[in-house]
Amino acid sequence: MWSTISTPLLFVAAGWLAVDPSGGLVASVILYAVVFLGIEAIARRRLLAFVVSVFGVALAVSAITSIAQGVYGQWQVVLAALLGIAAIAVLVANLRDLRRG
User: Which end of the chain is more exposed for a tag (fewer CB within 10 A), N or C?
Assistant: First the structure.
């Protein structure tokens, strides 16, 4: 069923962005992409993998932003980002081990 309505909804979303980009074009495109891909992941029963992927991309963007800010003298932000990345990596590894039993 999702495959039947996904393409028309994608066209409607693109039309809506063309008419009213008041929410910010980039933010709106990202939001629509996450929603569409999330629904697709639910339909394919791969929601957990999708959530982990989205979280990883968000973490990478945050890390890149933090490093860029660190170049301008905010080393505390860079350190916090690196520690956050380490914490997430350890958490993911621990959850995998726990899941495998």
Answer: C
Mean per-residue pLDDT, 26-47: 83
Provide the residue type at 80 as one letter: A
Under DSSP, is residue 95 helix (H, G, I), strand (E, B) or coil?
helix
Q: Which residues contact 101 (CB under 8 A, 6 or more apart)?
A: none
Contacts of 13 (CB under 8 A, 6+ apart): 32, 36
Residue with tokens 């029963």: 45
Structure-block tokens of residue 94: 């621990």
Give CB contacts under 8 A, 24+ apart, made by 50-57: 52/92, 55/88
- What does the block give as tokens for 24? 């910010």
